[in-house]
Design a protein that fits this description.
Elements: H1 6-15, E1 20-24, H2 28-40, E2 45-50, H3 51-57, H4 59-70, E3 77-84, H5 87-96, E4 100-103, H6 110-126, E5 130-135, E6 139-140, H7 158-168, E7 172-175, E8 180-181, H8 192-202, E9 206-208, H9 216-224, E10 227-232, H10 234-250, H11 257-278
Parallel strand pairs: 1-2, 1-10, 2-3, 3-4, 4-5, 5-7, 6-8, 7-9, 9-10
Bound molecules: 1,3-dihydroxyacetonephosphate.
1,3-dihydroxyacetonephosphate (13P) is lined by residues 24, 82-83, 144, 146, 181-182, 209-212, 231-235.
């Protein structure tokens, strides 16, 4: 159908009780795998990239790739900046043609986070682009494009969330509730009472980061408590890389790059399909 904002996608998700999966990407095969999976599942989807991934691909190339691949697909797609580190990066993404940006001021004081997020909201909304904020610090279970392993988390205060949403004007936000980026070393323990209090005080769609490894029952519960966007990154890269290792071992003399990358792309596509189903977004396009 078309390239839309995250705000539009999340409004429908919240109303119909599912979540839109947001998959990070940093190359062609990755992006094709996500879009082919979403098309097959008749599911809306968010394609996102963190700053390091945008720097790797070039922002204009990334947006042109997603727009070209999405053209004429029977699904809605949003193009999103994940964990934008600054106002300048958010504005650069507006210029590239993103339809959604995240500003992550979660490591700043609440006042500073609100002030900076407000500025991003003002610029983005003037361009018809939606904004995701972050409250509390979502830690790192392992190194990833979103941060370095060992960064500790701080759970989101529901009172801070209420003030943050009211004063910043964000369209949605990520709240730290015990989730972390990367591979969990033990089963994540999400604070659902906190999530429910946050939803009661804010009413905007909530975003769950660190989707890799969160069990299905927790994903369902989070959706029932107001989560409308779930981010997945590590699980996709893991599927691609593990398959690539196996393919290279099995085909030591092969120099056909397309042939060597195809099994990895298909592995990623299968993982994306599984996670779209977990989010309940299949059939919702
Ligand atoms: P995972 O890598 O844990 O899936 O987290 C992705 C994410 O939250 C991107 O912002």
């Amino acid at each position: 159908m078309s390239i839309v904002t995250t705000k539009e996608l999340l409004a429908d998700a919240k109303a119909r009780h599912y979540a839109v999966a947001a998959f990070n990407t940093n190359n062609l095969e990755y992006t094709q795998a996500i879009l082919e999976a979403a098309t097959e599942m008749k599911s809306p989807v968010i394609i996102e990239a963190a700053k390091s991934e945008i720097d790797y691909m070039n922002g204009f190339t990334f947006v042109a790739m997603v727009r070209t691949l999405s053209d004429k697909l029977p699904i809605n797609v949003a193009i999103h900046l994940d964990h934008g580190p600054s106002y300048d990066e958010a504005v650069r993404c507006l210029n590239y043609g993103f339809t959604s940006v995240m500003y992550d001021g979660s490591r700043l004081s609440l006042d500073e986070n609100i002030r900076n997020t407000q500025k991003v909201v003002e610029a983005a909304h003037a361009c018809g682009v939606s904004v995701e904020g972050e409250i509390g610090v979502i830690g790192q279970a392992a190194d990833s494009p979103e941060g370095k392993k060992g960064e500790s988390d701080a759970l989101a205060s529901p009172v801070d969330c209420e003030r943050f949403v009211k004063e910043s004007g964000v369209d949605c936000f990520a709240a730290a509730i015990g989730n972390a980026h990367g591979l969990y070393t033990k089963k994540p323990k999400l604070d659902f009472d906190r999530l429910s209090d946050i939803e009661r005080r804010t009413h905007v769609p909530l975003v769950l980061h660190g989707g890799t490894g969160i069990p299905l029952e927790d994903i369902k519960k989070a959706i029932s408590l107001g989560v409308a966007k779930i981010n997945f990154s590590t699980i996709m890269r893991q599927g691609f890389i593990e398959t690539l290792r196996k393919t290279l071992e099995e085909n030591p003399g092969d120099l056909d790059l397309m042939k060597l990358l195809t099994p990895s792309k298909l592995a990623m596509k299968a993982i994306a399909i599984q996670h779209l189903k977990m989010c309940g977004s299949d059939g919702k396009a």
